[in-house]
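FAQ: What does the model actually see?

It sees only this:
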Amino acid sequence: MKQANVNLKTAALLKRFLEEIVFIELKNEIGNWPTTLPMPVYIHKMAAQIREDQIDTISTEAIVRGVVTVMGADPSFKYASAYIEQLEMLDDGIWQKVVELGLAQASQNAYLEAILHFNAVLVADENNVNALYNMGRAFDDLYLESQDRQYLPFIKHCYDRTVELAPDFGPVHFALGFFYYNEEKYAQAEAAWLEALKCNISYDMREEVVSALGRVEDRSTFEQGREYILNGRFEEGLELLKSIEEIHDDWWQLNFFIGLALKMQERYEDALSYFLKVLVLNSGFVQAMNEAGICLIAIGDYEQALAHYREALRLSPKNPEYLCNRGVVYYHMKAYDDAFIAIDEAHALAPDDEVIQMWYQHIQTYLD
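And it is asked to produce this:
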């Protein structure tokens, strides 16, 4: 995600803050602010002055908040460069102060307000590591609070850009580790935490990383085994996953991928036991019903296979793979009319699926 895109997308999230701004056309200069430049003012900060008819003595705080809001919510605003110049004339340490204002907002769980401040700093200086890192943290906290996945690309961009600009900044590797861990990317989480340990991080962070690495080691093994299986390296994947099975007996994803590897090796009875175990641990996992059904077809237990596909299609009624497989069960049971109805529906839903096409053509020979 490029910086320009980040600004554009972030602005869409922050646009509502522009409703809190009024633009004032000055008759006389206030401080060094020229009369030719509309002054954005945070309306709540100037309300008392308006009531007291003191418009000519607008506070610096109201001006700063107004400029920050406009820049943060609309990075392409035509006067942005002029506003940057005005604030830097006002205070040459202004951007660090804006970052601190953002941190104060984040500490009160006002995460979008914090992001508004950090984004304004990045309009002035797109390489400001402090703003980038803390904007990533604010998005991270916002995601943890809301579980809204639209925030994930922002988190990743902010942390990645911080690493690019400051590779020895330990806290960002620490944060990236937890980001990857929560996304179940365990090998990447482990790599990020090991990098954090090479950097200067607090004692508490170091203790948390050591604890997290203990949790992630088996997760990393699982991730590698899963990737092997998904890439057709079934024996290697199975060896890795079986190495951690004993201490993770109730981990349904682990059981599922062990079952998948066994099924691909045509060890159907062994695979079936794992898929049935998955359904005990996670009764609503429809793909496990499908895989159990395939194994039951392979060993000739058609009644049980049909029961699994009935349940799978109750939960996912328009899934062409499950419909086709139910048709295959009927075919083996010599219920050819029922087989055709199921496979015909699957073909209508996924006419380009090669397996469904094959069964569609095959079943027609029994009806001619």
